[in-house]
Amino acid sequence: MARSRKEEVLLIQGLEVSYQTDRGPVRAVRGVDLSVREGEILGLVGESGCGKSATLLSVMGLLPFPGKVVAGSIRVCGADVLALSKKELRSLRGSTVAMVFQDPMSTLNPAHKIGAQMKEALTVHGLPCTQDILVRLLQEVGIPSPEAVLGYYPHQLSGGMQQRVMIAIALSCRPKLILADEPTTALDVTIEAQILDLLRQINRERGTAIVLVTHNLAVASQFCHRIAVMYAGQIVEEGTVDEVLANPLHPYTQGLIGCIPRFKKGVPLTPIPGQVADLSENLHGCAFYPRCPKREPACLKTPQDLLDTGDRLVRCHKYGYLDYAETAAARDWGNE
Amino acid sequence: MIKGVSARTHMRRKLFFLRLSLWAEGVSATIRRLRRNKAAMLGALVVSIITLSAVFAHVIAPYPPDEMSLADRFSPPGGKYILGADHLGHDVLSRILHGARVSILVGIITVTISVIAGGVLGILAGYYGGWFDALMSRLTEVLLAFPYLIFAIGAMAMLGPGFWNLVWALCFKGWVEFFRLARAGVLSEKAKEYVEAAKVLGRSDLEIMGSEILPNIVNPLMVVGTLRMGTMMVMEASLSFLGIGIPPRIPTWGSMIQDGYRFILNAWWLSTFPGLILVALVLSVNLVGEGLREVLDPDLQTF
Amino acid sequence: MRGVKILERALAAIPIMLGVCIVVFIFMRLIPGDPVDIMLGEASNVTQEEIDALRAQFNLDEPIHVQLTTYLTRVLKGDLGYSISRSANVRDLLLEALPATVELALSSITLALLVAVPLGIMTAVRHRSAVDRTSMAASFLGISMPAFWLGIVLILIFAVRLKWLPTSGRATYGFVPTHVTGLYVLDSILTGDVPALKDSLRHLVLPSIALGAAPAAVITRVIRSSMLEVMRKDYVTFARAKGVAEWAVILKHVFRNALIPAVTVTGLEIGSLLGGNMVVETIFGWPGMGRLVVDGIFSRDYSLVQGAVMVYGFTFVAVNLIADILYTWLNPKLVIGEKV
User: C258 and which of B8, C27, C227, C329 could share a cystine (Cβ 3.0–4.6 Å)?
Assistant: First the structure.
């Protein structure tokens, strides 16, 4: 697989996140490896509760209590996030990595004016902040009459405009990486397209890498270069958009694609049966087993590894390099 | 025809018992969850001990509360009088035990009257709206404009000391909070589908208010009612302390604290012990109330 | 736009003040017998003519609605009646006692806020820690403790036993500062009278603690719970994601928003503080309005009691109005503008 020799902006290895609860630990992320290069857009796709947001928040060091990174390493532009001091981490946040959140209505502080909130993002990193700079930032994200908007409170703006402001804040320190957590889920479809266009334009013009977290495979397919599908805290399939969509290997990916509504009469949707796996339990074998239409006893025998099939990674033993005899033997054994 | 009516009655009866069993189940579930709250259980224990000793005060108190022994005036704690004796030679402990009766009765009676009056008026106002609602809401706004204790003091100034006068003085304003809680509850419940459904089924307003809406708004009333019991006890003690609450011949904690205040320079125990037991009782009632809130209505804001 | 909202609120207070007057009037009418009977009391050598003359003087021979109107007009003019026990105008008596009450109330609420704001912030930031648990237990005690008993215990410990502070009064004889505002602390600062300042502060300490403990407990709990609620908001995470330092996140983003509900509760707490000050003033021999009312009750001086209750009602309405205005001012959601 030919990858351009560009700098790795984000490198996650073996990330494990666990939430301590009254009923024992909930393992939200179970060994995620990811890498994002300069200028790349990675889509992180999965159902809610699969650990995609927890992965993003770990990168920022913002996991809410009682979440904790228990293993693995996270490198942002070479800096080991988990080893940084609080102060170093703060100077990384917002400047090198910026985050765009799901619901713009609740992400901008209702008590402060737009101008003040934008100014804060610049001044905490010691950057100059003049009226002109703020106006230009707002212009860049396509906000009409930016001078007036600076004096507004968030609730005076529509959802789409608030999301643009949030993106303007995210861009203000020229970050190398933007983490976008479902940035369009709370918006209307038409606004969604505009916001995605804006992000793509930023990516193209500045080479800013973007990680887009979404539960919507259709959005990811239009927007990303590469996608990683997550299930139960693990990546189950990763590859370029075209390959994954044209020829999904993992049964879960196939299931997700089956769930995309087609703009065509008479094509039935095929929902995935069952519910998302319970993350407080230990997994034996494949996490997707209970819901998998192609399951077989062998799926439960061994922990499933992420296998490299050449053009992509997939976590399903069917695509493994086990030779036929072994597979057959395992199958026979399981059928006894 | 008669058969139809009896079948209907039968159904109603069945429904009633079903409701009853559901309610009993709810109560037992509440108690079960409350049991896990250690602070609330401690509060309940203290409340029970104080209540029991108030009920059996005439049995367990070492002396009759009004027995004077002038020779023993200002006996310090220990010895003949465990908690000392006051300026007339009354046994402080005996008077505390008897005084508990007033505090507990005032707490229970005023809160019961306030909850029922406020609850009924609030449900009616919320359900029917219109001029009645407007009138009641204005009235409550005006009553809320008076700080509680000042209102009670004003009322007692007019009514004069006395147990029932005190109860009425506290209830005059006490119902307002429950009125507002009930009214707000009804307004939010009224908008829900099940009330609409009951109307479509042809149930009478009274039935809807009583058996559909009431069970859904009763939790905050119970929680705030419990918490207010403590407030009422403090009010009673404050008024009795000022000498305008319960007449002086009945032993109350407030008037005992007042006696002690008069002799503050030579007998510290006179105010200290009745005050301590008052704080213990109010604190325990509040602990139970807080525990109830956590179980019944965690989002309710009460202070 | 905010101006309109604030004006609206101020106007809404007017009918409530009117209602306060009416309630006080009704109270007056609830007294068994009429004011003249009470005024004359046991005096037996009064002729019927004298009684009638007095009744006419108090408008008691007129129909009730006329009486109400007359009463309201009088109140509006600032005439609160005549105090029999003190042989003075009720208004003058209240005005004379007001500075003492205001001084005590202000110092208690200041003390309460000085304790509650940092403690509320700290308990929220250190949620579930030992500090949090201890403070919450202490605040529970504060809520359950009657102010008058706390006052007595404070006197017992700090005045009687340790003799650190005076037991009662506003000032030691000879240390009363020159009258400027009537607030002794302020007056002594204005006139540069250091001994008087020290003396009045020493007198203020115990009553302020007795009166401020409960509001401090309540406000701590409100600030804590609303801070905890705000801390879960996305905009707080977003502020952290911007790289804002933790203390700035807490103050600028969390506390600023948590303040909005706290303001309302503080207003209500000042009301209960006004109520509590009657007992606390009695205990500490504080020559304020509360003492006046209590004395009035014992001398059956109803016009004095009514006047004072009304002033308390008005003050409470005014304080809540101020809290409402602050709330409007703090809450930018009430700024209305076109959506872009």
Answer: C227
